[in-house]
Amino acid sequence: MEKREQLYEGKAKKVYATDDSGLLIVSYKDDATALNGLKRGTIAGKGVINNRMSNFFMEKLEKNGIPTHFVKELSERETLVKKVSIVPLEVIVRNIAAGSFSKRYGVEEGVVFDTPTIEFSYKNDALGDPLLNAYHAKALKLATEEEIEQITAYSFAVNEHLKTWWREKGVTLVDFKLEFGRLSDSTVVLADEISPDTCRLWDSETGEKLDKDRFRRDMGGVEAAYTEAAKRIGLL
Ligand code: ADP
Ligand code: UDP
Separation of 162 CA from ligand 2 center, angstroms? Predict the structure, then answer.
């Protein structure tokens, strides 16, 4: 597999073409942003942890019947993935109130839901990723009814698996964001990443945050939190 030109540089990853038109290489950076890009910084070693953690979970999800873009880990920061056309929705699944949910609805962080929730935002930086519902997504032709149903089913299934795998390691999965994409035959697969950048992870005993909230909220101990999360699942 040959790495070709850089196609895109995002906030956390770079994307490269390869000599196979169906495959891309993603390269994970240490750069971190929050508050719609207003807050910027670096988290040393984050790229390595996010790459390995994402691949660890994608591989396990694939074995559990959830199709993903994952092909092969190439190095500590680089992974070969299937090229998809990203469905411009950020899918957020929540088990416990936190972050924007707590703020929007006036619910204290930590309130445990009876059943998980799902919400969508329009993946559009210029608009600030506004929240939308399935009807809005259809009206804007972001996804079809069938795709939204498929994405919803996959997202809740991913939640059950991730929740279990983290629970076994003494970590509570509070919420997370997923992205999906279409392969050339238009089947929908899980894409992007699953990492402490995109999940809220709380130590089940102490409640300590092991995720990007430490960066967003200037809590310190950011690198140590990412390292601890990776250690819990045996990656370091
Ligand atoms: P952002 O674009 O939000 O700054 P990143 O820095 O993580 O995010 O950049 C990675 C980009 O690659 C994202 O826009 C993501 O939607 C996209 N992406 C993730 N997986 C794939 C894939 N398999 N095929 C094509 N694009 C992908
Ligand atoms: N999230 C993400 N990317 C985003 C927005 C949210 O990965 O652009 C993740 C975030 O890490 C958290 C979950 O989605 O695990 C829910 O985030 P929330 O809506 O509470 O937003 P925030 O408080 O980060 O603004």
Answer: 16
